[in-house]
Specification:
The complex is a heterodimer. By secondary structure, chain A is an alpha/beta fold. Chain A contains 11 helices and 13 strands. The chains are: A alpha/beta, B mainly alpha. At the A-B interface, helix 2, helix 3, strand 5 and helix 4 of A face helix 1, helix 5 and helix 11 of B. The complex binds adenosine-5'-triphosphate (ATP) and magnesium ion (MG). Chain B: Pfam families: ABC2_membrane_6.
């Protein structure tokens, strides 16, 4: 479905010195800086896969997706999406793909959602029967009924995102790219959106590529993840394997009235690391294989006065850091 | 083609929906006609003809030109906005040609503007300011065709201005300059035939007089017969020429987005 071979993207950034003199200078001398956003990556995605494409901010995720959508031309390498080279054949590619960008809208701003869909039907030349069947299904699944007659600009973020999602699947594309589809949404809407994506994948066999900073999205939707950092792929494979390797990392934040004289209790020294100490908080990092969370808490409570505590699962950021430092 | 027609139709609906805006622009347009009426009457106080036109011909010209002049904008500012906000990226992921989509939207908006404001304004002008009918039936028909050509020409020209947003951050200043030039050289303020000879000469080699001056002069009979066909040929030439420039700069602009990322 998707083949990416040795793909790179360099951005050329024209540098400008600050101030007026810098502005005038830049008229004559242009200093260029090359930013390698994606650096010789290769992967292949089969039809019907749901792949999580993850990595820290600025890793190159959106850049990759833009190349797959055909709106950025690669500096080097090959891409094929459903047999089409996206940047050479943008319109053909457009019919094969759907996309949601968390921060952008693709619905028509001024008209009710229902009419937006009606327009998309013409734009994508969707047969009327297919369109109606899918519309009915989507309305039910994403609970769009009450919002279909409202213009897009009056929708809340969660409502808008549900509408966007329906729009991206409307023409039954072979591949859907979702760039942070759950950003800024509450738990219930996130749940709803995940359920919908899973259902579409089962029903129509739609291939889905998902970027997100929410580990929950990944765990519920993806069998496979690709981790990218600094433009290079760090890991490509099974989610379960990564979770087994890193999923046991825990961080506990202890809120304490006093942290000045904090010293890690001796009984924890061999198994626990101090991740961070601030004025009112101590964060401890450990593996649930080496020591139980309950035990860490008990020992801390015995030695120090603790007001409150929170336990954190491993975030994508820590996993990436971990892989970066220690390898897979 | 079907998709562009659907976009065209939907834009007609959208424009019809803004009724508050409609009344505001309608009232201001009527005031504009009233001011024109008294202004030109004052100008004609001491003479019967100015540049071969009597008062009735002049009032007819300026009123038709003012109404037609309201259709000389285009989708350029929407294009510039899409470029500035980065919305252009999602537009490029659609199976249509963005330029054609914008033109379809623009023409849709103008169609509903024509029905809801141009027609009533023409009626007002005819009833209260006694503008004359076209010279002849042929002149009337040619005027309609020539007006459509003028509107299309202004539309492609406006898209070129919008496209400049790819190269300059501030299209606002450009737009003001454009509006001033179009207002003056299109002949929607005063007929080009009143310009000093040197300005008339310059104007002949510019596309702007094809926007308003040509169709309205066909209406009043100032351009007729062979000359009318020639003038319409020139309109067609400018549309094709400017559209070609538009396409060429569009593909340059696309290269800029797809290679440099905006
Ligand atoms: N148009 C551009 N011009 C120059 N540099 C850019 C451009 N777009 C992105 N970059 C740079 O390329 C790198 C990768 O950016 P990209 O948007 O792909 O990251 P990302 O993985 O999507 O990050 P995030 O999680 O923050 O969305 C960043 O360093 C960014 O600053
Ligand atoms: Mg991104």
């Amino acid at each position: 479905m998707i083949e990416v071979k040795d793909l790179s993207k360099d951005y050329i950034i024209l540098k400008r010195k600050p101030g007026l003199s810098g502005a005038i200078r830049s008229l004559f001398i242009r200093e260029k800086e090359i930013k390698q956003a994606v650096d010789h990556i290769s992967f292949e995605i089969k039809p019907g896969e749901v792949v999580g494409y993850i990595g820290p901010n600025g890793a190159g995720k959106s850049t990759t997706i833009k190349m797959l959508c055909g709106i950025l031309t690669p500096s080097h390498g090959e891409i094929r999406v459903n047999g089409v080279v996206p940047y050479q054949n943008r319109k053909q590619n457009a019919i094969n793909i759907g996309a949601v960008y968390g921060q952008r809208t693709q619905l028509f701003w001024d008209i009710p959602v229902r009419e937006s869909y009606e327009l998309l039907r013409h734009i994508y030349e969707i047969p009327k029967n297919d369109f109606e069947a899918r519309m009915k299904h989507f309305t039910e699944y994403l609970n769009l009924g009450p919002i279909l007659d409202i213009p897009v600009r009056q929708l809340s973020l969660g409502q808008k995102m549900r509408c966007e999602l329906a729009a991206s699947f409307l023409h039954n594309p072979a591949v859907v790219f979702l760039d942070e589809p759950t950003i800024g949404l509450d738990v219930a809407v996130k749940e709803n959106i995940r359920k919908f994506i899973r259902e579409m994948n089962h029903l129509y066999g739609t291939t889905v590529i998902l970027t997100t900073h929410d580990m929950e999205d990944i765990e519920q939707l993806c069998q496979r993840i690709i981790i990218i950092d600094n433009g290079s792929i760090l890991y490509d494979g099974d989610l379960v394997a990564v979770k087994e390797r890193f999923g046991h990392q825990r961080t506990i934040h202890f809120e304490m009235p006093q942290t000045d004289h904090f010293k890690l209790p001796a009984s924890l020294e061999s198994t626990v690391d101090v991740a961070e100490i601030t004025e009112s908080r101590v964060s401890l990092l450990f593996s649930s294989r080496d020591i139980k969370g309950a035990e860490v808490i008990a020992i801390m409570m015995a030695e120090y006065e603790v007001n409150d505590l929170t336990i954190k699962d491993t975030s994508i950021e820590t996993i990436v850091k971990e892989i970066y430092e220690r390898g897979i | 083609m079907r998709k562009y027609i659907a976009i065209f139709k939907s834009q007609i609906q959208i424009t019809f929906a803004y009724s508050a805006w409609f009344w505001a622009s309608m009232i201001s347009a009527v005031f504009q006609l009233i001011i024109l009426f008294y202004f030109w009457h004052a100008v004609y106080q001491n003479s019967d003809t100015i540049g071969n036109m009597n008062i009735k011909q002049m009032i007819t010209y300026v009123m038709i030109a003012t109404i037609l002049g309201k259709f000389m904008n285009g989708a350029g500012s929407q294009l510039a906005g899409d470029i500035r906000t980065g919305q252009i990226a999602t537009e490029l992921m659609r199976p249509y040609n963005l330029l054609h989509k914008l033109m379809a939207m623009d023409l849709g908006g103008k169609t509903s503007d024509f029905i809801q404001s141009a027609v009533p304004l023409l009626v007002v002008a005819g009833l209260f300011f006694s503008i004359t009918l076209p010279e002849s039936l042929t002149a009337g028909i040619l005027f309609v065709v020539s007006s459509i050509l003028g509107i299309l020409l202004a539309g492609v020209f406006d898209l070129i201005i919008g496209l400049l947003a790819f190269w300059t951050i501030n299209t606002w200043g450009l737009r003001i300059l454009r509006n001033a030039i179009v207002l003056f050289f299109s002949g929607s303020l005063i007929p080009i035939s009143l310009f000093p000879p040197s300005m008339q000469l310059i104007s002949q080699y510019l596309p702007f007089q094809s926007m308003v001056y040509v169709p309205v002069s066909i209406y009043t009979g100032a351009i007729s017969g062979q000359d009318a066909w020639m003038a319409m040929g020139a309109q067609l030439f400018w549309i094709v020429f400017i559209y070609a420039v538009l396409r060429a700069s569009w593909s340059q602009a696309l290269r800029k987005v797809t290679i440099f990322g905006g």
